[in-house]
Every structure is written in structure tokens, then in C-alpha cells.
């Protein structure tokens, strides 16, 4: 009866709050998990779910067809994953709990975690990536396609080299999100996704452009970068301007001399072929 016990919703939110604010080593994280299980047993909460009733109904409807097939072909009975009167009453009761009471319980549990691990060594996060807050699992993508998640931000930087930086950025509530390109923490470019990414459209079920490519030759490097020694490594980041979170991806540090050399090479005029003389000495 004690196998596969889930966290209480408030424990989950308190843990998310900790991960968002601090870089917690794995050993300490495992201690926190055990602490929260014991906390939930010692101080049981009346808050059993933070899922809105309408979302619950959408989930069941999204998977209704596959659930009916499951029960019909494997259990020879009607689909049991349906809303009962008892479940409806349960959700109405949960939704009647004041939001300030929910926040109070989450904050109390979060503070209890900090008190529990106050003697441990861990650092406050100086950088936050979008996937650390919004998630980017297969379930996340599935729920987005089913319309079960509407407040989500994601993206990925797939290319980062001396020629360009490229990737995609998606905000389900903003079709024209601005992103910032930073070199060593300095903003050098501001842009919006304008390129079609068929893969992103298919995965997330959207109908607008999410891709971007920024060529360094089109960026005016600040004097602080140009004045750096040639062997200095430059850190590159793409940040979602609205929330300040970094888009995760395939980043690499660029050598200043290689970056400048590539920019200068790309700006050189290319030779044009005016005419071609064939082997028979006739002009073509």
C-alpha cells in the first residue's frame, strides 16, 4: 500500500521553487526528497490537487479514445477512466480552497526545506534556463498538442559557431517573442523568430514561425569585445527578453580571434565571373 507514493501538490511546488532558485547537488536533492515524504506524513494537507477541474476533463477527453480501446481489447469492459460524481465533488471542494492558503502552505514547506539543508553547501542560481521552469519532456509536448498546456515557453539553440547562432524560440501566448543575443553578458542583438521550422510546427501543433538565425557579420560587436586579447573565450547566450531565462542549447565558447577573422572574411567582396572561355578558345 506504500509503494509508488506521490508527493503532495504543495511538496511538488516547494521542490520546484527550490530547484528554480538554487543549484542543489544530487546527494542533497535526495535528502530533500526523503524529507518531503516524511513531512507529508507528519503534516498531511487538505490540498490534494492543484489541477483545475476543466483541465482534468480535457485530459480524460484527450485520451478517451485510446482508453476505450484499452479497456475494450484488454479488459473486456467499459472505460473506467471517466469522471464520477464523487470526483466532480472532490474537484469542486479543492477549487474552493483559497489561493492564499495554498501559497502559504507551499511557502511554509519551502522554508522548511531551507531550514533542513541550511548546513549544506549549495549555490543560488545565477542562470535560469527555460526548460528548468517550463519543462520539455515528451509529456509536455503531448499535453501542448492536446491543448492541455497553454502557458509554456521553450526553445533550443542548435548552432553556435564563429559564423552564426541559430535555433528556435516558442511562447504559446506570444507569437512574436523577442530574444536577446549576449556575448559575455552584453546584449549585442535583439530579434524575433522569423524563420519557418516545420519540425517545431509538427511537434507543438503551431502555425507560426519559431526559427531564427543571426550571422555575426550582421552584429556590431561592442568595444569591450573588440578590445579583448585574441585568445579570450567569449561566452554566448540567447535569452528570452520577456522573462530573462536562457534558451538551452548547443552552446560553445568562441575564441575572439576566430570570431573576428570569420566576420572579416565574410565581409570581403566575392569575385564575379564575367565570362568563360572554352577549350576551343571560343567565349561562352
What does this structure look like?
Helices cover 41% and strands 16% of the residues. It has helices at residues 9-21, 26-42, 53-62, 64-75, 85-95, 99-116, 130-134, 138-145, 198-204, 223-226, 256-267; strands spanning 22-23, 123-124, 153-160, 164-171, 179-183, 186-191, 211-215, 233-234, 236-240, 254-255. The chain has a three-stranded antiparallel beta sheet. The chain has a three-stranded antiparallel beta sheet with strand order 6-5-9, with no helix packed on it. α1 packs across α6 (99-116). The longest helix is centred in the middle third of the chain and has 18 residues, at 99-116.
Keywords:
alpha+beta, 16% strand, three-stranded antiparallel sheet, 284 residues
Provide a compact summary of the structure.
41% of the residues lie in helices and 16% in strands. With 284 residues, the chain is of the alpha+beta class. 17% of the residues are buried.
Shape designation: globular
Q: What is the number of strand segments?
A: 10
Please give the count of helices: 11
Major sheet characteristics:
3 strands, antiparallel
Whole-number mean pLDDT: 91
Q: From the alpha carbons, calculate the radius of gyration and give it in angstroms.
A: 26 Å
Low-confidence stretches: none
Structural class: alpha+beta
State the helical fraction: 40-55%
Query: What's the end-to-end separation, in Å?
Result: 86 Å
Order of helices and strands: HEHHHHHEHHEEEEHEHEEEH
Sheet-strand content, in percent, reads: 15-25%
Oligomer: single chain
- Please state how the strands of the largest beta sheet are arranged side by side: 3-4-7
